[in-house]
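INTERNAL AUDIT FORM
Audit reference: QA-55
Scope: verify that the stored structure record matches its stored sequence.
Auditor: D.O.
Record contents follow.
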Amino acid sequence: MADKAGDYDSSEIRVLEGLEPVRLRPGMYIGSTGYDGLHHLIKEIADNSIDEAIAGYANKIDITILTDGGVRIDDNGRGIPVDIHPKTGKSTLETVLTVLHAGGKFGDGGYKVSSGLHGVGSSVVNALSTHMIAEVYRDNKTHHIEFDTGKPTSDLKVTKGSPRESGTSITFYPDPSIFKETTTFDYNWVSSYARHQAYLTKGILITVTDERNGAKESFYFEGGIKSYVKRLNNGKETLSDDIFYVDKQVGDVGVEIALQYNDSYTETLKPFANNVLTPDGGMHVVGFRTGLTRTVNDYARKNGLLKEKEDNLTGDDIKEGLTAVILVKLPDPQFEGQTKNKLGNPEVRGIVDKVMTEYFGYYLEENPAIAKKIVGKATLAARARKAARAARDNVIRKGAFDGLNLPSKLADCSSRDRSECELFIVEGNSAAGSAKEGRNPKIQAILPLRGKVLNTERARLDKMLANQELVSLIKGLGVGIGDQFNIDGLRYDKIIFMTDADVDGLHIATLLMTFFFRYMPQVIEEGHVYLAKPPLFGLIKGTGNTRKIDYVYDEVALENKLTAKIEEKRKAGTKIDESQERFKQAGYTAQQRFKGLGEMDAKQLWETTMDPENRILVKVHVEDAEKADAVFTKLMGDQVELRKNFIQAGAASVNLDDLDF
């Protein structure tokens, strides 16, 4: 054994200085160095401008995606201070952009309410950029400084004259050595971010410009989060046109809530703290749910809408069909981590509960017709919940790998290592038979579907559990459903929809995606759902033992392949008979179009669609949950006119594999 201590001394200890830790471990500060982390850079800079607006010092923000790969974020706020900072001896502007935990968000700094918590945002962006340009406009002067990978390349330059009375402009270029996956900004992401911030900050105008293609949008919502709720319910049948809204200040905590019910069976809840979305909830959500549940039950009891012997309505009953936006503003938010997914301030729970109980109570008393509809919908949900309980207990698998209660038609895999296991949900018995024969039985399981599954967009849990195809799927997955859902029970790393590449097959895939999106969203969020892409064409060369097939997956690829083959032959001096079909001109003896998976034998299905070495899988992920919600509402909801318009507008060009959710 080597000497434990002899070669281990102070020289082995590295002390990171300045912004070195950020470049060494960027994921600690921005979550990842992929697509999400790249766009988080915009958020870190733009959030500072939003903070100026929240504080009442700015009413205009411009976000511009530049043709040379950079992004410029410009506001008309006060402008970052430029005087010499007493601690660093450098300008405050340089300090803010080069020193971690330096900013106006601590103690009695420049902001009473801020989305920033740690004061690292601007300096982190600087560290992860090849180049940053900062300009501050104050006192009819322009203050200019530039940086490379977080280090200043010049002193602060001051010139007379300014494009506006006050403000800040930050331009940055992400470092490709850090963001190796991509440094190309997505206009749709930026547009979505700007829209949300405009909803959350009444009276602010946010303009997004993409100089790469000329796209431009401006967002301004006088109604604030009421306008947000209205947008979230667009295309849904609401119980009332009226939207409940309250905006109250309790001590140093501001509480703003808007809600409206629709006739769907799912909840849409958007919680924010200091304009930061907290997808994992937190104390403001707990307070909201507690106040909402208590208030609805108290009203129902008081007005005889619940019988004396009836149980109270649960939170799950009351949240069915609820669309709500919660926005709290507080001086010292306790977020979990720099990515701020959850709010931890315990005092916020009681404040939100109190505001919700008092003011939603007034609302129900003043609007008895709406109150009766809300209680009536919750009561129906309670009955459905009780009806579903018995059915659910019979179909939900209790253990992850005990082999009990698995659906009889599931051809399971032998491996018990979830990380390598795959479940193919296959359309039709014929294709399922070929899949079972051709699969790798160690890691690949096959679950055949008979016909089209239930449209879960328009079905409660009790109705779903009466559908044998969905019951088989739920049992096979092992995660349970409803309040018993547990992602830890998932038996397969990949869940692959393998359907025909025709209209019926795409419809079945859409029905399956609707089910997962509405009732098992975490399975999608964690990257377990895929679409298999079977080939549409087989180009055959030779016969008998020399027979070979080139598989092609869509019509564009087919035309490209044939064109390339023909050109190759021309260059080689081969004479082309233009009167022949294209595939013969390209040197193939036959062309086959696969109308469905059932036309392939086991060997073909394995080679083209199941073999991990050759297959094409499309991962299903939700890039914009609100956009996805709207698409599912249009495609699978009750309003025929919305669906008709959607289909007519895009039927000629839409392929399910290309839908951007």
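Auditor finding: record pair retrieved intact. Confidence is low (pLDDT under 50) at residues 8-16, 396-404, 656-661.
Action required: none
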